[in-house]
Amino acid sequence: MVGVSDGQSSAQAPAAARTSVGRPLLSLALASMMDEVHAHSGAVYLLAADQPVLEMAVMAGLPRAFAAPWERVGMSAPIPVADAARERELVWVGGEEEMARRYPRIAVVLPYPFALAAVPIATETAVYGAVFVTWPGGHPPELSDREREHLVAACGRLAVRLERAAEIGIPPHSESDLLASPLVGGMAGTLGTVEAARMVSRLPYGLVSLDLHGRIGFVNAAAAELLNVPVSRLLGTQLWASVPWLNDPVYEDRYRAALMSQHTSSFVALRPPGEWLSFRLYPSTTGLSVRITRSRAVSEMNRAAPPSDGKPSRLVTMSQVLDLASALTEAVGVQDVVQLVADELAPAVGSQALVVLGSRANRLRVLGHRGYRDPHVVERFDGIPLSEPMPGTQVLRTGVPAFFESQEQLERLYPARLATPDGFAAWAYLPLIAQGRPVGTCVLSYAEPHVFPTEERAVMTSLAGLIAQALERALLYDVKHRLAHGLQEALLPHSLPALPGIESAARYVPATQGMDIGGDFYDLLGAQGKAAAVIGDVQGHNVTAAGLMGQVRTAVRAYTAVGQAPEEVMRSTNRLLLDLGAELFASCLYLRLDPAHGRAVMSRAGHPPPLLRRPDGRVRVLDLAGGPLLGVDASAVYPTTEVALAPGSLLVLYTDGLVESPGTDFEEALADLGRHLADAGDRPLNELADSLVRHRHRTDGEERLDDIALLLLRAIG
Fold it and tell me: Which of 40, 128, 114 is nearest to 84 (CA)?
């Protein structure tokens, strides 16, 4: 057990941890490790002596509060350090999207762009704990060999030292977390020279320096005036604690986001009664510098607001905020985000329609809309230059929200809108800012003139931050989705050729997890007057698997074209995979069809056996001789099996995604598929192909963990 300080006295630490403080082994090891790989935060976890629990012993680079939910984690918890300690291998999470996919519990609490590596502290005989280190969001998506070697070697050395200490009965000492240097209250001391301090004090905008805990170490006179709080009440306190109108989790979250991602962040906040201020946060590994200025455009609109009519303001409740935040974490594509905003936010604020705008090539893009009777009214804005004087372009360029409580107010500021009426009477233009840059604009439209009280403007502007993060992820997903589908379509045949004596149909269904791309493939081709067919599965669901699949399919076509026998086609393809050094394996089934003589010759490499439906409707699983997976053994042979193929016979070739799923017995699934084929096998092949895929996944929304490739071949007289 290792005690921690984090601002606590020794009396607050666990009794088992109150030992004399010696040489800080863990702190030094962690600091050295972070320095070697240029990480900006990290922590050491040690395995508890009496239970399978990892306990945080020391943290560096960030306040312990950032990782508070994971100070103690079970070895079976879905957390990177637990996975690393349990599996005894390095765990790498390359960014925000991968974190959300693999470790959603962490992504919900820390939805920021950062990379993380978790490494076990273990010897050959024992596990002592694990370490994690993090990098800002700009880190490359892959861990370099140098970084991996440094981390593994450093954790190995730490494990040896802990093992030696355990052998002589010396437990690890209590150590303090490693943060930035203590606060310096004096302005001159903080800035280095008195003249530099005077210069900063003369600047017309506010400057505030925060440490890693968010405490104020320096504030100039302009900032104190803008915040309307004396300097003496600000120094040494957290900004959101000393300034009542900044006491909002949304503003604290911007500070956390800037520290975790090391990206510049910004937001606007309302200083009562009606002055909007702009805050821009510049992070480093020792804290944050904050620049504060007046947001004049928002303030002017706020001053023009008519007096309240005394009715209760339409504020979004905390439960609605949580519902929206939770729903947005599940949004996949841009249209999911648009629909969630329409379902969750628009009704809560009384809006009847909405538009989500983005930009590409310096032109406005309509990403989605809901509630407009005539879609052309909205879509006519798609493609206009961002330089056009329109509210949508202005908000997207500046990142400053705009509220128009009547049509007259909008048309007075933007006369061009006279020519494009949309039938609504009030609008809220909310900038969608992620990682300090605008990614879009959310336009909420109202059927009647609508007063926007200051509280409602603040809440809507804050909620726009949640929408912005979801939209940024969705835009990235949509790009990857289009690339994945384009690659998959390019690698698979666009259509099957018409061959004498053979009727055919095929289907490819991607997995619902991953990139919607995989290594399953099929092909049908003519070969010296005969037909040949192939189906296979390269392991993996990523671009590497898809690329290798394309090479395998091309190789099979080439070996077939030069007249190689089925067993030679398989041997040649096997050698190709080994020569490529891809470290991926592939299953494959290759057929040479001769319907004129009623036969087929097949060779199999670790692939599921095909089904044969005879003309009388009986179905059997073909027991084929075969060899190992392609890419395993250079000396492997792939014997052939000849099968009778009378007119009316139907061959069903498939990949394992059609019959395998967690908790399902392979033999039972194959038998079930055979029964369905016996009943439905007389249907036209395209109908039968759809039926076989639907039969395998009867439940709507059921997750598919693997791709499905299906090729149907019917011998015709």
Answer: 128
